[in-house]
Amino acid sequence: EAQVTQNPRYLITVTGKKLTVTCSQNMNHEYMSWYRQDPGLGLRQIYYSMNVEVTDKGDVPEGYKVSRKEKRNFPLILESPSPNQTSLYFCASSLEWLGFGLEQYFGPGTRLTVT
Amino acid sequence: SQQGEEDPQALSIQEGENATMNCSYKTSINNLQWYRQNSGRGLVHLILIRSNEREKHSGRLRVTLDTSKKSSSLLITASRAADTASYFCVTSGSRLTFGEGTQLTVNP
Fold this sequence. Notes:
The complex is a heterodimer of chains A (115) and B (108). Chain A has 115 residues and is an all-beta fold. Helices cover 0% and strands 50% of the residues of chain A. Chain A has strands spanning 4-7, 10-13, 19-25, 31-38, 42-51, 54-57, 65-66, 76-78, 87-94, 105-106, 110-114. In chain A, the strands form 2 sheets. In chain A, strands 2, 4, 5, 6, 9, 10 and 11 form a 7-stranded mixed β-sheet that branches. The N and C termini of chain A lie far apart (36 Å). In chain A, 38% of the residues are buried. Chain B is mainly beta. Helices cover 0% and strands 57% of the residues of chain B. Chain B is globular.
């Protein structure tokens, strides 16, 4: 089944404790992206990747890191989480980036709480 | 910013009625997409309309695009309780940008 998976689905952690949220897709997609969703702010893009070893900042990259060593995986790293990073996170992928976006496939979401 | 802005923010209708949601944006686009999100879950792609298209249909969905007015509408006909969700428009130019969504409630 074609899908985007994220782990963990729920995470409660403390300020400053490094964490990684994994994202994997099995559709051989070139383009992958991370979003956070907050009430009243909608979905905002954190980082995106157009292909292996190619990543770039989205609208709200501060406090996050990503890597794209393999085509299928795009982990999101929070080196020192803070309470303002409490949010619902989504990973998404699409076939490619053509200078504009195509249909995106979303993961189920990771609800992160930082205390 | 190319942010799509949906209108209304919330819409409540009875089962069987039609639901219309609107999206406005600010700059030129290559395409516009509509997504649905059930509460707390991932977004699901509904339909994509290219900038050179004016109308597109998919099942009970009808999307229009007016690039001169920088606006789009999503019509869901004969709505069902299962259509209850948030609906987002996503504009695509040099960046992908999401609006804040319209919360649709379909009452049985």
